[in-house]
Design a protein that fits this description.
mainly beta; 10-stranded antiparallel β-sheet; elongated
């Protein structure tokens, strides 16, 4: 797979001295820059364990080859204190085979809310899985970032 980070060295001229056209190395480099995609989406949330309500905000993502990074905010209210689990749809579908194919964190500055949690791949439903332990039932806004592999 080509690598957009491989900038041709200073010894490679921008133009081919024979044809006057852009050199092959530089052409490939610029062509690979088109593999970076970014957009916004509104995910669907599934209240799986101990979640009274959840609301997504419009989230953003970018994709470089087969790796995607998603970030945004969600509002979550736990039903009771204890273990909580929430699922979130992906902006680009992936067929996860193990939980480590996605990883991320989320945290809040909402006063009285649970401070942080982990995000991993849900291999059953091919979604992001938010896990945390609620210390109260306050409606809390969380900011998150997660990166996952695009598995076909």
């Amino acid at each position: 797979m080509p690598n957009a980070n491989r900038v041709p060295t200073t010894q490679v001229p921008l133009t081919d001295p024979t044809t006057g056209l852009i050199s092959r190395a530089w052409f490939r480099f610029f062509e690979n820059l088109n593999t970076i995609v970014s957009d916004v989406y509104t995910p669907t949330l599934v209240n799986t364990t101990n979640i009274a309500s959840s609301t997504p905000a419009i989230c953003q993502y970018f994709q470089i080859y087969n790796v995607l990074t998603v970030s945004g905010q969600v509002t979550i209210q736990a039903t009771a204190t204890g273990a909580c689990n929430l699922k979130m749809t992906l902006p680009v579908a992936s067929k996860f085979t193990f939980s480590g194919q996605a990883a991320g964190t989320f945290a809040t500055t909402t006063a009285g809310g649970t401070a942080q949690g982990a995000i991993l791949a849900d291999i059953t439903n091919d979604q992001l899985e938010f896990r945390f332990t609620a210390t109260n039932t306050t409606s809390t806004v969380y900011s998150f970032t997660a990166t996952y592999q695009l598995v076909q």
